[in-house]
Every structure is written in C-alpha cells, then in structure tokens.
Amino acid sequence: MLREIEVGTRNWRNELSSSFHCDTVVIGAGVMGLLLAKKLTDLGQSVTLIEQKNTLAYGASIKNHGWLHRGTAHAVSIKDKDQAKSVVQKLIYGFDYLSSYARECIERPFEPMYAVTQDQTVAEQAVCAWEELGVDYEEIAKQDFFKIDPDINGDLPLRIFQSADLHINNRMLFQKLLTDIKKNNGLVIQGADFSYKSEDEIEIHSEKNFIVGAESFVYCTGANLGDAYRQLTGSDLDMSFWKSHLLFLPRFSPFSMVSLDRDMPIIINHGEVSVVNRAYDEAQCTTPDYSTDPVEVDRAFKSLCKLYPFAKGLKKDIQSIVCVKPSINFGDDSRHSVNSQIFEPLPNHFFVLPGKMTEAPYVADEVLHRIYERLDFSQITPRPIDIFQVSSSSETKFQLNQRP
Fold first, then answer.
1. Which of 159, 167, 202, 329 has the lowest tally of Cβ within 10 angstroms?
2. What is the pLDDT of residues 6-33, one digit of tens each?
3. What CATH number should be reported for the domain whose range is 108-166+239-328?
4. Roughly how many angstroms between the first and final C-alpha of the chain, as a whole number?
5. pLDDT in tens, 305-356
6. Do the bridges between strand 47-51 and strand 19-27 make them parallel or antiparallel, or are there none, so unpaired?
7. Residue 216 burial by CB count (10 A; 0-12/13-18/19+): exposed, middle or buried?
8. In this structure, are residues 129 and 165 in contact, taking their beta carbons and an 8 Å threshold?
9. Top-level class of domain 2-12+20-60+171-237+339-375
C-alpha cells in the first residue's frame, strides 16, 4: 500500500499547474500539522501540507520521550488548579484518540509505567489531583515493587504508583498520519519554503514554484512560528523557548519511571533503549538553542544515579540531545513548560502550538471547528441553533460558574 501511494503521488510536481487553489494550506509537518491535515482531509477538504525540511516531524515532535501522557505528571506539576484541569483534560482526550487511532503504534501495551515520589506531601497532593481529574492510578507497596525491580534504590522513602500512561512509537504514528493524508488526496510538499502573494495566496518555493490560494492557512511551524508571523504581519511575535536535555542509554530498568520530584529522573524505555531526563529540567531561553550543555547532561545523569545507583557504570554509554519547545508569551504562565495555543492575527490565518504531543488531537479539533465555522454548509439543513440569532443588544450573559 505504501508503494502504491508513493507511485500515485511522486509526480505531483510535473502534474500541477503553476497555480492552484485548495481549501486549507497547513504549514509545518510536525505532529500538529500532520494531525490537522489528516483530520481536514477526513472531512473532505483539499489540503496542501508544506514542510521546510526534507523529512517530516523534524523538531520537537520526534525529539521527545515517546511518552503517551494521560495526565499523571501534569496533574501534579502544574500548580494552578484550573490550568492543571485544562491540560489534563486535553491529555486524556489526546490519549484516548491516539491509543484508538494508532493502537498498532503503542509499544508493549501491557508493560506498566510507574510514578514515584520521596515526598509524602507530594504523594498526597498527587492522589488528590488524580482523583479529582480522573487520572487512573494504583499505589504499589514498596516491598512488592522491590521484588520486581530490585535495582532501584531501597534507601529512598519512595511512594510508588502504577499509571495508565503508555509508550508510543511516534515515528510509526507519523507514517500512519502521512499515509492517511495521501490516501485522502492531500498534497504533501517537503523541502519547501513559502512567501506571501496576498492574504489569500502564497508562493511555494521548491523544485518547482507554485502559487497556491486557499480559504484558510494554518501555521504549525513550532520554533519557527515567529518567522511566519513576521512575514504575515510585519511584527515580531513575543516567544520564548524551553530547552530540555534527553539522555539515551542502553536499557537498564525493567519499567519506565516518572519522578514527581525535582532533580529526580524520568525514564521512558523503548525496546533496548532508555530515554532519561531530569524532572522539571526545562530551562527558558529567548532563542532556540540546540547546543548540548555538559553541565545539564551531568545533572540529568546524577538524578538517574540517585534512583538507580548502579547506573554510574553507564556513564560512558551516554548519548544526549536537546529538545526545544516554543511558547508564545501572552501573559503570566504558571506552567513550568509550554502550553497549547491558538490565535488568529489576521482572518483565516491560524497560528498553533500543540503543547505536549498528547494534547495535539484536542488542539487540532479546536482548529477544525474554527475553520468549519466559516465554510459553506448550503447542502446541509441548518440546525435550529444555526438559524437562531442572538441580539447584539442583549445584556444577558451566562456565567459558567453561576449556580441557582
């Protein structure tokens, strides 16, 4: 099937005229752009997906743990309760979508993942937050856990919880999304830049140049979002970037382990490889910085050795990379890393950040609804609420937090 799709789409540069029109142009083919293009083409839209790199999902979408969140960590790490609730709801939504849509991309689905803390107060706060937000967990007695993982540091006063989080092969997920986009006749252009002709036309620069008109444009370019914003508006976008170090080691533990404590490790296993970072290690910077800091690598490794003392012998095997995630500064943010964000500086031009990969399905659906509000549904009978007109002079306002 993949071969058939490739054969059917490989000559598009020769077949397309120098200008054409589609419903939506999606710029940036990370997890956000791929998901949005897949969902739009599922709904029958003609979509052009443009990626600057020669390969898709080049940035933070691929440079991560491959951890399918279900709210275990973020219910605890985000101190603002309303924000924590919002993020966890998005994570559960995305977890349910991805584990259903891409079940075959889940690695070792019956291999449990655990959350640990040394702090009794953190443990109590975690249980309270999980109960309130619907995050699945089960506490495991320390002595029972040591029977199945005897190498963990037995001197630490650990509280241990089994979570519902999963491991996902995100490269396999992205291939599945790409396959579905092409099956739905979506056009994917890699190794291409663009420039504006007007507010509803862009010129794509690749092996062959094209002028493309569209009803909507969606920008999912991650760390490069500011470049597109500057091209469109002539102004700078106030952005910051969150830098995290990931260590890759030969697998040394039977289970993936998420620490809820600062300066302790997060360990996500994939086959024979362990991906490690130090919890709460995201450092804010003003420009994307992909250089590896030996001090941060050492701090991450020392956090690992606190939980698994024998890991000191693995230092020579460390390989490390940096993952950089962007955020748009719209005000104070109590979250220690990035938020999902959607905004529209000009009509029908949407700028989008997914936050965590597992939040992306929810954010994609939010963008979808905003696009579909403006489409022609003349072939479908209007709903009564589509006909009902709310008077602009009405002073009646409904407050979600009001109770009779």
1. 329
2. 434 444 555 566 889 999 999 999 999 9
3. 3.30.9.10
4. 58
5. 999 999 999 999 999 999 999 988 876 554 455 788 999 999 999 999 998 9
6. parallel
7. buried
8. no
9. alpha beta
